[in-house]
Every structure is written in C-alpha cells, then in structure tokens.
C-alpha cells in the first residue's frame, strides 16, 4: 500500500504545515471546523494543525465532546487488567526510555515462567479479564520462550485475554524465529495471543525517530507490521508519544498515517496519546520544548477525537496523565480510561507519579463524578457490566 511520506525533509517549527497552505487553508476558522464536525465531515490536516495552534481550548473540547457523544453517548469504558512487563533487558537504547537495561546493569531483570504464572493467577483472582504483556528486546531469550509465556498465561485460565507485544517486539520476534511476519503471528496466535497494544509508534516521522530512537524500527516498518497484524485477524491499539522534540506538524502527520491505515484495515480499536515522562530518561530536555502541560494533554486528546473519525475510541492513559487530567479529559472527547493496570513499570520508571494500580471502585467513582456512565469492558470492547 502507498502512504504519504513519513517525515521526509527537515523538521519544521510549530505552526508550519506539511505543504504550502492553499487559499482554502487560509480561510480555516474554528467556526468552519465546527460546521464540519457537527455535520459529520472529515477535517483536513491543515484544520487539525489550526486546532493545535488555537488557544481556544474550551471550544476544541466542546467539539471533541460532541464528536465522542455521537459515537459513544455518555459511556466511558474501562477494564480490569494486569500489566506484566516480563523483562527490562533490551538491545535498544531509546533516548526517551528509562525502563531498559543491559543484562549487567543494576535493576536488570527477567521473569521466569513461574513468576509470570503467579502474576497471572493473582490477576485472575482480582477479576482481571486481560493480561497486558510488553517488555524489552532481550538478546538471549529464544522465540520458544515467548510462545511458552503465552501458553502459561492461557493455562491459568482460557478466559484471560492476552494483549501482548508491540509492533517493535513482533518485528524482533520474527527475526529471532527466522519467520515471516505472517508466520510469526500465526505461531503467536496458536500459543494464545489475542491482540496487540499500540506501543512503539512514538512519533512516526523519520527525522524525529532518528533523534528519539534511532535503533528502533522505522515508522514505515511500524505501519507495515500493524497492517500485517490486522490482516492476521488481530485487533490492536495505536499510540503516539508526544511532548518531547516533535512539532505540532509531526503530531498531525502521525495521526494522518494512522487514519490512512485504519481506512484500509479497520484493525485499530483505540488511539492512546501518551504524555512523555522525562524525569529519569536519557533524553534530557529540561523544560520539554514540545510540551504545553495539562492544556496540551487535553488539547491533544480532543483533537485526536475530532481528527480520527474512523477510530471508535480515544483513551486517556491515567498512568501517564495522572488521575485528575484523565478525569477532566472525559469532557474533552475521551471515552476510555484503560484499566486497573497493577504493577506498571515502564511509565513509572520514567517518573510517572500516578499510583501503580487503581481499583475497580476508584475508576467507577472517577467516571461517575465526571457525569459519565462507567462501563466495564473486555479487551475487544464487549460490554461486561454497566454501572
């Protein structure tokens, strides 16, 4: 499939569009965008960029809330899940990552199958329906270990849905196994893989990735892996790591590429903007030139709801946003808060100040106090209970 160029050329400062603005672009206004949103028309890249540059946060939030209510009503989803980050030993050294270690560094670890089984049993006892597993690209673990890891979790209970491995991990596992992507995904599905998270996307533009994570697969490769994942009948999420060195143009370009792939496969379930956590990462940004605080968080979530009209769900990942911004985001087009999580390590190693877990009752209360209807779901958005 052909897609637009992923980040060709030099990085542009905020406010400069990918292409020279047309006369039509010059006539963009909040009112013209509002008219398109309210009549169900798709907004353009130039219009999304206009929204990022706008200071009218409340108007943008109102439009996002309208777009979300049309899709999801007043329902806000969450699930009871458990994160298992099976290892932090990784061959890559991404500039934004505080999680990865070499095998000889302090704090390096890898769970054996017994430890993974025990965590899965704890999750089941707590009412979890999903195990979320991502980790480092371990240089020594064989492909068979990952198959056994999936079988181990499914052996605890066939009802546990295993959402595991980013596109980066899938690419690595295919090389490890000496198989094609399709063959690798077939083997993983047979062992119990149910769906994929959306990590590893970061910012898809080449000039950003070269600074942020030069050892990681390219944006084109990330999209190609996700296309193959969807062709294999697996659903996935999609993410965007923002608030570091990227410009607004890069955010729009990133979402454009996701929207184009979604047009073709329909395999993305939810979009998750991830706020960069700088505190303990190798990437020393000081004031984080690409980040505008809570306003930026809410604006990014709202614009993603407006722009990604072919995505059913927009998630506020409370682990990185914090509980308060996540709750406020429910008035800015968000309709998913992730889940109970338990023992999340990647964001917290980077400095996230949120708790390691949130109980079902806490999430229900958070949603209810925001004037929304809490809906417990499974991984594939089947409704389990409406509160």
What does this structure look like?
- By secondary structure, this protein is of the alpha/beta class.
- The chain has one domain (44-386): TIM Barrel, CATH 3.20.20.70.
- Helix content is 42%, strand content 13%.
- The chain contains 16 helices and eleven strands.
- The strands form two sheets. It has a seven-stranded parallel sheet with strand order 2-3-4-5-6-7-8.
- Helix 3 (45-53) packs antiparallel against helix 12.
- It is globular.
- The termini are far apart.
- Mean pLDDT is 86; it is low at 1-17 and 343-354.
- Amino-to-carboxy terminus distance: 43 Å
Note the overall shape.
globular
Neighbour order of strands in the largest sheet = 2-3-4-5-6-7-8
Determine the mean pLDDT. Answer: 86
Low-confidence stretches: 1-17, 343-354
What is the helix tally? 16
Strand content range: 5-15%
State the name of the first-level CATH class.
Answer: Alpha Beta
Q: Structural class of the secondary structure composition?
A: alpha/beta
- Radius of gyration, in angstroms, nearest whole number: 20 Å
Reported CATH architecture: Alpha-Beta Barrel
How much helix is in the residues? Answer: 40-55%
């Amino acid at each position: 499939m052909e897609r637009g160029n992923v980040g060709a050329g030099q990085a542009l400062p905020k406010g400069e569009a990918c292409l020279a603005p047309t006369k039509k672009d010059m006539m963009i206004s909040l009112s013209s965008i509002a008219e398109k949103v309210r009549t169900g028309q798709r907004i353009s890249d130039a219009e999304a960029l206009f929204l990022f540059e706008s200071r009218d946060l409340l108007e943008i939030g109102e439009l996002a809330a309208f777009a979300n209510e049309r899709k999801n009503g007043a329902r806000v989803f969450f699930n009871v899940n458990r994160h298992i980050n099976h290892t932090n030993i990784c061959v890559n050294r991404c500039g934004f990552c505080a999680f990865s270690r070499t095998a000889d560094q302090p704090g390096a670890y890898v769970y054996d199958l017994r430890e993974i089984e025990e965590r899965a049993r704890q999750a089941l006892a707590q009412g979890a329906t999903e195990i979320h597993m991502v980790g480092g690209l371990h240089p020594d673990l064989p492909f068979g270990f990952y198959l056994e890891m999936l079988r181990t979790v499914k052996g605890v209970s066939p009802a546990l849905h295993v959402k595991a491995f980013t596109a980066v991990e899938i690419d690595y596992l295919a090389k490890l196994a000496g198989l094609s992507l399709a063959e690798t995904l077939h083997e993983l599905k047979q062992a119990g893989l149910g769906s994929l998270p959306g990590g590893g996307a970061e910012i898809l533009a080449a000039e950003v990735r070269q600074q942020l994570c030069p050892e990681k697969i390219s944006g084109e490769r990330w999209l190609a892996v996700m296309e193959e994942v969807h062709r294999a009948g697996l659903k996935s999420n999609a993410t965007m790591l923002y608030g570091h060195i990227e410009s607004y143009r890069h955010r729009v370009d990133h979402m454009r590429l996701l929207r184009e792939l979604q047009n073709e496969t329909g395999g993305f379930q939810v979009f998750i903007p991830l706020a960069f956590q700088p505190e303990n990462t190798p990437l020393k940004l000081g004031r984080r030139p690409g980040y505008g605080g809570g306003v930026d968080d809410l604006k990014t979530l709202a614009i993603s709801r407006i722009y990604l009209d072919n995505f059913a769900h927009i998630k506020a990942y409370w682990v990185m946003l914090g509980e308060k911004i996540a709750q406020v985001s429910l008035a800015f087009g968000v309709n998913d808060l992730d889940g109970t999580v338990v023992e999340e390590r990647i964001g917290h190693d980077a400095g996230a100040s949120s708790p390691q877990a949130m109980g079902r009752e806490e999430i229900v209360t958070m949603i209810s106090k925001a004037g929304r209807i809490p809906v417990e779901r499974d991984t594939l958005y089947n409704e389990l209970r409406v509160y």
